[in-house]
Amino acid sequence: MVLRFQSVAFSLALAALALPFCSWAKAKNDLRNLSPAELVRQAIKNEIAANADSGRHFMFKDQKKTTHLTQVKLLVETKDATAGMLIAEDGHPLNPQQREQEEARLANYVRNPEELNKKRKQEKEDAEHSQRILRALPEAFLYEPDGTEKGTDMVGHAGDELVRLKFRPNPDYNPPSRVEQVLTGMAGHLLIDATEQRLAEIDATLQKDVSFGWGILGHLDRGGRFLVQQADVGDHQWEVTRMELLFSGKILFVKRLNIRSSDIFSDFHSVPSDLTFAQGVELLRKEATQADAGTAQKPPRTAKGQVIREPKDGPKTEAERDRQPCCDR
Description:
alpha+beta, 13 strands, globular, disordered N terminus, disordered C terminus
């Protein structure tokens, strides 16, 4: 999955997780013998290893909600970079002028190799940040058991046992760079699929203001939160299915940061792994042409066609979230 952000605060939301399939019996045996910290360490080790040679590319839909608008995008992963095309805003398909602007933006990448190289470089840098955050998880937090849940089409693998672990900052952890600095103030929970030993969900909230770059580069306010959910979208291929971000703070003393967004990713289907960016753009054009107003306004669905329910009242308190099934958050 090539979901990328350019801020330290959100690197945790970038991980594209895919592991080799583990047998149910082996996973259950391992889980009985592993402490919470070792379970996290093993899951992260598997994910990092598999992430290096995933090899699978997908086309999928992203429905994004922010404070001011709702957008629907089509995205396709290519061997060059990820191509994305906006197809609807606030429940309405783009008008001809907006569609022309989108196609011109994508055509600029195709015509200008330098621009495409910049995009590829940025995606690579963001992926490296993501890897660093993943590697830090076992040491950055202290974990304790918090029960189990059942996997759904949105979280883990439907029917699998998900081990729930609460986490809080490890006071002995010393972040090696500002990339990992945000972890020092976070607490929350994560879910690990007990059958396939994959990270199915991480839900974290800032318990204090967190500075990065010794406060010179900026800070994030207490109460900031992110939620990332992942699921098996078919054939034991895992992708991010939901991502929620709620952060405020300041950058370089004066620039106010205020991010509130919710993304639901759905309708995954495979595309050739050797797809070029230009070919990906052409696929997006064909798919967008086939989409009509009715399709654009339909609720997002999982890879298995089930409607994805969205939270109605915005971010909830920790207590309210804990009383809900994970798929309703």
